[in-house]
Every structure is written in C-alpha cells, then in structure tokens.
Amino acid sequence: MTEKLCAEMGSAAAAKGNLSQPLIEMRGIEKIFKTGAGDFTALNGVNVCFYEGEFVSVVGKSGSGKSTLVNMLTGIDHPTSGTVRVGEAYIHQLTEGQMSIWRGRNLGIIFQFFQLLPMLSILENVMLPMDFAKVIPFQEREARAMQLLEMVGLEDYAHDLPAEVSGGQQQSAAIARALANDPPIIIADEPTGNLDSRSADAVFQIFSDLADQGKTIIMVTHDSSLAKRTGRMMLLSDGELVNNWIANAFPALPHTRLLWLTHQMQPQLFDLKQSIPLPDNSQAALYLFTTGPVEFVTTNGFFGKHKVRLDPGEYLSLPDVQNFSADVLGLRSANGEKVEALVLNQHAFQRWMDEDQADQVRLTTAAINRLASWRSNGDTSAGIS
Ligand code: ADP
Ligand code: MG
Predict the structure, then answer these.
(1) Which atom of ligand 1 is nearest to the CA of 31?
(2) In this structure, which ligand is nearest to the CA of 239?
(3) At what angle do helices 346-355 and 255-264 cross, to 10 degrees?
(4) 260: exposed, middle or buried (C-beta count within 10 Å: 0-12, 13-18, 19+)?
(5) Of 131, 206, 341, 378, which residue has the fewest beta carbons closer than 10 angstroms?
(6) Ligand 2 is an ion; residues with CB less than 5 A from it
C-alpha cells in the first residue's frame, strides 16, 4: 500500500523499484487555518513519501502551502487531520516536550532568515544546539563546531559576530548550526531566498555535498534552476500535490492547469494482448506513458514510413496524431512489457482546449516540433513490421 501510494505520486525512488520503507511518510494531510474570514484550507489531502538519502525540492507559487507542509515535518505546526511519520516517530502525536528533544536530535532546520543569535560569535552559534541536545560530549563540541565551519568555508570567521559577515556566510553558518548534532534529515525553507545568486549557488553546493554524504534533504525553493538540480521536485498548487509525471511532461503549463490534469488523468494498464487505441476524437485524447518504451509506426503520407518510440514520461496527444496526416499503425509496447499510462479522456481534453487558447497553442506548437524531431530521429530503416 505504501509503495503504491508513493508510486502513484510519481516518486522517482518508488518508480525505480525502491520498495524499502520510506523514511518519511505524510498521509492524508489536511490543514485548515481558522481566519477572521472563515476557514482556509492550506493543505488538502496531501500524500507524500521521502526516501532515505533523497534530495527533494518543494516548489510552487507563493501561498501554495510549501511552508505549511514542511512545518508539519518539523512539528512547528500540526495537521488538522492526517498522519506524519518520520523514521520511527509519529510526530503529530508527540507532546511539545517530546517534540523538541526529538527535533534536536533528528532534524536540521534552516530558514530563509538565518536567525543567528547576534550577541554570540559564529562558533558559539554553532555550538548552541549541541549544548541543548547533549548528544555530543562537552569536550568535543568546540572542535566539532570548528570542523563544521570548515566544511562550509567559514573557519576564518569563527570568532566574528554574525553581523560582521555577509548574508551568504550567515546562511552557511546557519547550515553548520543545523548540522551540529549530526541529524539524518535536513529541512530548509527557502534557504537561498534572501541571497544573491552567487551566494545561493554556494549554499546550494553545501546541500548537494550533504546529499552526497547520505543526508535526506527537503528544500523549499522559489528558484527553479536550483530545484532542477535536486533529485526530485515536488510541486504544490493550491495546497495539493501535482502528479510528478504530469509536472515533468508539461513544464510550460500553469500550475493550476497541472493540478487540474492531476485530478482528470486516470491511470490505465494495457496488457500485451490489448492494442492501445490511438488518441482520437472518441475516447482517449492524451496518454502520458509511465512505463515503456512504447512504439508506433506510420506508413505513408507526409510523415512517411517511420517508427517512433516514446519513453516513460513522454506523451502522445490528439494534436500529435492529427499532425501526421498519415496512417498510423499499432501503438504498443516496445519491449514486451505491460504499458501503463495516465489517460485524459476526450471530453476533458476538449474542455481544456475550449477553456484555454494559450494552452491549445502550446500543445499544437509542441506537436509540430515533436513531429519534426520524430521525422529526423525516428527509425526510418526497414524492419517495420
Ligand atoms: P508558501 O510557503 O507556499 O508561500 P504557506 O504554506 O506559507 O505558503 O501558506 C499557504 C496558505 O496558507 C497561504 O494562503 C497563507 O496565507 C495561509 N496561511 C499560512 N499560515 C497561516 C495562518 N497561520 N493563518 C491563516 N492562514 C495561513
Ligand atoms: Mg513559505
């Protein structure tokens, strides 16, 4: 069940067949804020898994629920309903006291604003969490803090006050502080949000190195170029998770449309005896393949005799097929395995095209470009059966 849940979300780890227990599991998370204007649903039925050693970015527009989501992991806030398990701990059940002990040992938390204590030196700031958690023996604390400062390139600034170094250096110090008790999990909410791009890059590099060392890192970010460099992106829109396959296949679409597609597209399994009907005007209008490769053959017309292969993550839509002006044969598995796809039916597709001229242009333009690339890259050699 867990694996299925994670796989349905398009978790790369789950898709790769990593069926081990996820390190972090959030199920059915709902968060409703009571406000003067009434109830506001900030998270609406979020299911999400994180695996040990993953570097995941959480992206989405301002107000989409990113901070609310990570606050459920750090215990800064509690879900209205749903469960949060991190390792062995069901943290939505912990009392404040239990929570702060657990947090001190297991999580390194980093915020957009560094929140270093201004009257303490950088070294003392890094030692502070060790004094609270009492995991690292007293006599080792200073040496460990120095080691962490070296790791983030701040060894020469250890005795400076936070205000005496740059923003990027303060954030590096905050990362060193978050690592004080050697937590397995690091949670960062817009850690580069207040930094120039060079400092942001340096800070990102520290996260990336930590991920290589096996830490599990969850990083909220506005910066899509940084997000793309993480192992997996999690896109939130209006408090809901966008299906990863859909987000990756249509990076140019507005988030609200991606969420709509997440609601509309249904998974379908085609067994080998069943041919996959082409996208047409009667039933399915768009397939997004989640296994594969699949292939199809065109026999004549403008497109000529051609075999086209689509890998998992690629899609085939009604505009693609309409563009061929050729007879198309047998959409089918290319490797003798069952095919799974997310399917958008014709009715929903038509509604989408009617509602949104810009998306219609996007899809038809994409279809024309894809046709050109299929023509030049496709397997035109014989052997078409
Ligand atoms: P993000 O981090 O993606 O920018 P947040 O998780 O901070 O978004 O907020 C999601 C939505 O929940 C926003 O519309 C925000 O105004 C609302 N929200 C967040 N915290 C509270 C709160 N304490 N009370 C009322 N509404 C809140
Ligand atoms: Mg936020």
Answers:
(1) 12
(2) 1
(3) 160
(4) buried
(5) 131
(6) 66-67
30, 32, 33: residue to mutate for ligand 1 pocket, most atoms within 8 A of CB: 33
pLDDT in tens, 302-320: 666 778 899 999 999 998 8
Ligand 1 pocket (Cβ < 6 Å) reads 33, 35, 40, 42, 60, 62-68
Pairing of strands 185-189, 107-110: parallel
CA of 64 to the centre of ligand 2 (A): 8
Distance CA 244, CA 258 (A): 10
Long-range contacts of 30-36 (CB under 8 A, 24+ apart): 30/79, 30/80, 30/81, 30/82, 31/65, 31/68, 31/72, 31/77, 31/79, 31/80, 31/239, 32/80
Among protein residues, the one with the nearest Cα to ligand 1's atom 14 is 63
What is the average per-residue pLDDT within 31-35?
A: 96
Given pLDDT bands bounded at 50, 70 and 90, which one contains residue 10? very low
Instruction: For residue 67, report the distance from its CA to the centre of ligand 1, in Å.
Output: 7
Q: Which residues of 220-241 are buried (b: 16+ CB within 10 A; e: fewer)?
A: bbebeebbebbebbbbbbbbbb
> What average pLDDT does range 353-376 have in this prediction?
88
pTM of the shown model? 0.88
List Cα–Cα distances, 275 to 182, 269, 313, 330, in angstroms.
Answer: 53, 11, 20, 7
50 in Cβ contact with 70 (< 8 Å): no
Amino acid in the structure at residue 170: Q
